[in-house]
C-alpha cells in the first residue's frame, strides 16, 4: 500500500487538474509523468494498452483509468481526510449526491466549456491538435461552425454558472455545506479553472469573475485550502520510461474479485473489451481479473502479449464491457 502514486497527465488537462487538486486535498505525495497532449503517447501505451484519455493513475502495475475511478481508489487507499466530510453540524454524509455532481460537471458542463475552445485560432496555430481532438471526439471539428455556435454555448454557460452561484447563495462555504471542502468542490472547480486558464468567455463571467462574486470567493477559498495541504513531495518529475520499469517490477495489488449478481455475468478469466461510451473510444481487450457494479479490472497483456503486464482498471459507468471481436 505504500507504493508511489504516479500521475500521467499534462498541465492543461482539466480532468488531470481535478486529480492534482484531489492529491493535494489528501496531502498525498505523488510523482508526475508528463505526457504529450496529443497522440502518440509511447510511454503510456504499454501501461494503459490503448486507453487514450488523460489522466491515468499508476500505482506499481495497477493502472487506473478515468477520474471517477481514480478518486474512488484514492479514497480507499488514503481514507483520511475523506473526500466526503459530514454535513455541517451533522454526522451524516452526502456521498451519492456528491458523486453525482460529477455527472453534471464532467458531461454537460464540460461539453459547454469545451465548445468555447478557440478552435479557429488552433486550426491555424496547431492544426495537429484539432486533428487529434477530432479523432478523440469521433467526428470532425469544424472550427468555423464552432465559432458560429459560441453565442448559443455562452447561453448554456450562463446557466451552469448561475446554478453554481445559486448553490453558494445561502452563505455556505462549500458546495455540499460541509465543515471542510468535499470532492464535490473539486468537481465543480474543474470548469471554472479551465475557462479562466484559457480565458475563454470573460464576456460571460467577467475578467476576475466579477459577474459571479460567490464563485470567485469560493474558488479562491478552495485553491487556498488545497495549496495549504499540498505535500512537500508532490509533483516531482519522473520519466515515462521509469514509470514503465516500476510497472514491470511490481506485482498488481488487485486480487480476483467478482460480484456476479452485479456484473452482468462477467467472471474473472473471461476475455472482454472495455470501451468508453463518449470520447476516446479505443477498445482495451483483456482478461478479467475483477468485476463488480463499480469497476472492471482486466489484464490486456494476457491477450495481446504486448506492452507491460499491468492490470487496467475502469469504472463501469461511462464504459461498455463487450465481447471482444471474434478475430483479433
Ligand atoms: N471521463 C474521463 C474524461 C477524461 C478526458 O476527456 N480527458 C481529456 C483531457 S482533459 C482527454 O483525454 N483528451 C484527449 C487526450 O488528451 O488524449 C475522465 O474522467 O477521466
TrEMBL record:
<dbReference type="InterPro" id="IPR004045">
    <property type="entry name" value="Glutathione_S-Trfase_N"/>
</dbReference>
<protein>
    <recommendedName>
        <fullName>Glutathione S-transferase</fullName>
    </recommendedName>
</protein>
<dbReference type="Pfam" id="PF25907">
    <property type="entry name" value="DUF7962"/>
</dbReference>
<dbReference type="Pfam" id="PF13417">
    <property type="entry name" value="GST_N_3"/>
</dbReference>
<dbReference type="InterPro" id="IPR036249">
    <property type="entry name" value="Thioredoxin-like_sf"/>
</dbReference>
<dbReference type="InterPro" id="IPR058268">
    <property type="entry name" value="DUF7962"/>
</dbReference>
<dbReference type="InterPro" id="IPR036282">
    <property type="entry name" value="Glutathione-S-Trfase_C_sf"/>
</dbReference>
<feature type="domain" description="GST N-terminal">
    <location>
        <begin position="3"/>
        <end position="82"/>
    </location>
</feature>
<dbReference type="InterPro" id="IPR010987">
    <property type="entry name" value="Glutathione-S-Trfase_C-like"/>
</dbReference>
<feature type="domain" description="GST C-terminal">
    <location>
        <begin position="91"/>
        <end position="250"/>
    </location>
</feature>
Amino acid at each position: 500500500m505504500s507504493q508511489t502514486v504516479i500521475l500521467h497527465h499534462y498541465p492543461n488537462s482539466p480532468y488531470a487538474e481535478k486529480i492534482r487538486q484531489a492529491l493535494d486535498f489528501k496531502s498525498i505525495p505523488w510523482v508526475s509523468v508528463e505526457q504529450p497532449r496529443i497522440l502518440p503517447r509511447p510511454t503510456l501505451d504499454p501501461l494503459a494498452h490503448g486507453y487514450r484519455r488523460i489522466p491515468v493513475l499508476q500505482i506499481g502495475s495497477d493502472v487506473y483509468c478515468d477520474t471517477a475511478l481514480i478518486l474512488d481508489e484514492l479514497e480507499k487507499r488514503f481514507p483520511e481526510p475523506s473526500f466526503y466530510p459530514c454535513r455541517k453540524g451533522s454526522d451524516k454524509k452526502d456521498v451519492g449526491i456528491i458523486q453525482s455532481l460529477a455527472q453534471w460537471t464532467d458531461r454537460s458542463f464540460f461539453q459547454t466549456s469545451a465548445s468555447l475552445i478557440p478552435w479557429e485560432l488552433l486550426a491555424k496555430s496547431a492544426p495537429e491538435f484539432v486533428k487529434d481532438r477530432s479523432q478523440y471526439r469521433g467526428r470532425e471539428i469544424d472550427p468555423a461552425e464552432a465559432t458560429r455556435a459560441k453565442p448559443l454555448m455562452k447561453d448554456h454557460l450562463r446557466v451552469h454558472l448561475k446554478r453554481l452561484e445559486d448553490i453558494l447563495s445561502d452563505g455556505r462555504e462549500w458546495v455540499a455545506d460541509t465543515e471542510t471542502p468535499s470532492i464535490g468542490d473539486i468537481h465543480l472547480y474543474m470548469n471554472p479553472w479551465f475557462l479562466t486558464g484559457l480565458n475563454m468567455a470573460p464576456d460571460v463571467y467577467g475578467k476576475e469573475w466579477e459577474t459571479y462574486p460567490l464563485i470567485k470567493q469560493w474558488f479562491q477559498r478552495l485553491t487556498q485550502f488545497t495549496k495549504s495541504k499540498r505535500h512537500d513531495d508532490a509533483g516531482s518529475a519522473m520519466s515515462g520510461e521509469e514509470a514503465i520499469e516500476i510497472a514491470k517490477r511490481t506485482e498488481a495489488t488487485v486480487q480476483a474479485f467478482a460480484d456476479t449478481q452485479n456484473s452482468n455475468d462477467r467472471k474473472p478469466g473471461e476475455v472482454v473489451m472495455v470501451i468508453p461510451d463518449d470520447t476516446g473510444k479505443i477498445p482495451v481487450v483483456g482478461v478479467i481479473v475483477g468485476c463488480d457494479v463499480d469497476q472492471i479490472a482486466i489484464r490486456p497483456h494476457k491477450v495481446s502479449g504486448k506492452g507491460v503486464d499491468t492490470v487496467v482498471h475502469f469504472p463501469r459507468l461511462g464504459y461498455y464491457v463487450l465481447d471482444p471481436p471474434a478475430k483479433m
